[in-house]
Amino acid sequence: MTDTATPAGLDPATLTDVLRVAGTPGFDRLQDQIRSTGGCSDPIHLMGSTVTRDRSTGQVLYSYATDSEPGGRLRVACGNRRASRCPACAWTYAGDTYHLVRAGLVGDPDKGTPHTIRDHPRVFATLTAPSFGPVHNRLGTRPCRCGTWHREDAPELGTPLDPETYDYAGAVLWNNHASELWRYFTIYLRREVAARAGLTQKEAREESRVSFGKVAEYQKRGAVHFHAVIRFDGPEGPETPPPYWASVDLLTDAIRAAAARVHVEVPPADGHSLRALRWGTQIDVRPIKTFGDASEITEQAVASYVAKYATKAAEISGSADSPVHCRKCRGTGRSAVYNRAGSALSQCTACRGTGLGEDLARLEVSDHARRLMEACIELHVLYPERQLARWAHMLGFRGHFSTKSRQYSTTLGALRQVRADYRAAQHRAALGLPDPEQNPEATTLTLAHWTYAGHGHTPGESWLAANIRRDIAESRELARQELPMRLDMEGAVA
């Protein structure tokens, strides 16, 4: 029997739940809650209460409890950075990343960087993984090795020409050690800078600083590569100018030399010889211009590019977007108790020591991604300390997707705190509560108690959240398009 879509474009079960949700007494309040989360796909449910009192008199100024909320719960945004899991929260994360990167390029005193930072030498560097075997690709001027001119969305792009000879073990081990490769790169970069300046490492540190902000991106073939903004600063950081010898050319040469020096050794294991992991030969380093032409990369383009990929993960290569490891043992394959001899931890009974909690054969992933995930499971037994089973859905990568050096610019935590403070001030103003900044003597005391009560939406609520999220996105896009027109009109009137 074929499933016929309803006039509303929904399957019957979802439509039934939409009608149920719309008919509940607290429907308007439910809409307000979902709208306050931006249309979050997987909100956190909280139960509890909060009371605000005047500290000196004990008078209750404000009280709130979730008893009056729909279902007795308050929904708050999940905060997931991944666009495949929650587009609404990923949009917020991308915005924070954009401002963090941009503050390190154009300067923002409120975010810890002066505007003079624009005069510092800056480059946008891309470090990639080596080849693990030929794959289908789009070469632009000539067809792929298979003889086909692949279209841009061809599913075979990034997959091996010969899966039987492709080095899947090398690919996942490289992903797994990518963060260590980057750590060694930053060490060698400072050494190469000192060598090219004709200084000792101590003298170079006394005259300059190298700051960076980076993001990890998956290629179609499932290998991680890094995009990084790398900047020369003075000895005290971004507030001081870099020395006379610090130039874009010196920084570019140092980056290439440092990348060539880096290697991380993976010890031999059963059936696997010693591996020396290195960066790939395709290293791209471009100067960042304040204003560029078609051949130059600008501050705006860099910040937008980094922010875009900060919300992506391994799903671009056809992998799963959620963990597949055993939840009981957290992918270790070991129990929390010792075996009978008392010499080692027992094998996990849930996954039988594999660390796997899902049947990879049944997952809706590409064949190439499945082979990479299977390689993670096989290598987990040989390298248990690398936690490859736990990170199989990430194809072995276990690092942070976006990182920065201490003095590059502000932090994501600081940006979140500014947003939280702003919303708290709005909330106080709406309730008529005293502002501690304007009236320090009028102190208040807030007592709150919250408990976790679940997460997610019913099918009808998910449909409602998706529509609210779409409306919010359309409003943002209209506002973005109208801003240049409004500025032009204001300029003409002035």
UniProtKB/TrEMBL annotation:
UniProt superkingdom: Bacteria
Pfam families in the cross-refs: RepSA
Gene3D superfamilies in the record: 1.10.274.110
UniProt name for this protein: Replication initiator
Protein's organism: Streptomyces noboritoensis
